[in-house]
Amino acid sequence: MRFFRTFDLMNATIGKLKLKGVGQESPFIIAGPCAAENRDQVLNTALALSRIGVHYFRAGVWKPRTRPGGFEGVGSIAFEWMQEARELSGLKITTEVATPRHVEAALAANMDLLWIGARTTASPFAVQEIAEALKGTDLPLLIKNPVSPDLSLWCGAVERFLEAGLRRIGLIHRGFSWIGGNSCRNAPLWNLPIEMRRLWPDVTMVCDPSHIGGRRDLVGPLAQQALDLDFDGLLIECHIDPDTALSDRGQQLTPAELEVTLKALHRRKDAPLAGDIPALRARIDAIDREMIALLANRQDITDEIGRYKKSHDLPLLQSGRYSQIIADRAKLAREIGLDPDYVTALMETIHDESIRRQVEPTPDTSL
Ligand code: PEP
Ligand code: MN
């Protein structure tokens, strides 16, 4: 399964996001309930969070529900509670916007930061409208990944906001809908946010382990993985009484649980690599070169088979042969101690490429 191809990006750089109230601390923490439900819940949660080193208080004002009938948020009344929470707790405040009307209300409420939700990032029309509504403002904005593992949608959203003149942009990784087996609510597929950082090297990366894991007990381990991958910030759902939460009940921590979770996190030291590492890396480099040469050999052979099939008017794909290759390589992987799913995914990528080459029209060299 291939997630992305390299594509050209808009020629604009994104610097590190400087957020009010965040100094050198790393990671910076955004925490708060999935949704603002009532004044007491908002104030009590924010006050408790302000005592444990949180920087930004989050709460959903409007909740995008996949299906109608669930709790859809209390609407703009929540801004009054959040502003009060900011005054009492000293925390900055942030919420999700999904329409120009939300942007207007959030700007009127003087929010410190906004974020774009995963369902919105997946919709270019919605992103464009929000980008236009934000034009001329200098509000920092975090863009969640789209629900599906499609990097061009994520990049497209970044580009639309850049085109609208926004420069204070960061990304939130909240996992992806995924049909493969995974213990998480949304599979982390870490290679995708890592690829985003390769494309936008200085972009601020926030991880949302709550929506990735979907379960309280996964939040800590996922947050640690994010730090190991050098994420700058964490967004964690926290409710003063999670068992009564009107949305995302199973994944919200109490402020006390968040405190324990944050204390257990650690950054690995960024020391120069010594010991055997340089030699081991040299071996990896050599193996990679050999693998690439082998892939080229394999491709020469499949190209030759493709030419034979074409000249004899044979179908390009013989599904029996393909199934046999996949089953055989998965068996071999298991015997050797490799994960068969991993090897199957590699074989699928290799096979996709030979088919792509075989179906592409052969250039007419006589022209
Ligand atoms: C949220 O942060 O509460 C939310 C709705 O998240 P997502 O857009 O990642 O589903
Ligand atoms: Mn939520």
Structural features, described:
The chain folds into two domains: about 30-265, TIM Barrel (Alpha-Beta Barrel), CATH 3.20.20; about 275-360, Chorismate Mutase Domain, subunit A, CATH 1.20.59.10. Helix 6 (about 150-165) links the parallel strand 5 (about 140-145) and strand 6 (about 170-175). It has helices at about 40-50, 75-90, 100-110, 120, 125-135, 150-165, 190-200, 210-215, 215-230, 255-265, 275-310, 320-335, 340-360; strands at about 30, 55-60, 90-95, 115, 140-145, 170-175, 205, 235. The longest helix has about 35 residues, at about 275-310. The mean pLDDT is about 90. By secondary structure, the chain is α/β, with parallel strands linked by helices. The chain has an eight-stranded parallel beta barrel with strand order 1-2-3-4-5-6-7-8, surrounded by four helices. The chain is about 45% helix and about 10% strand. Phosphoenolpyruvate (PEP) binds near residues 34, 60, 118, 119 and 174.
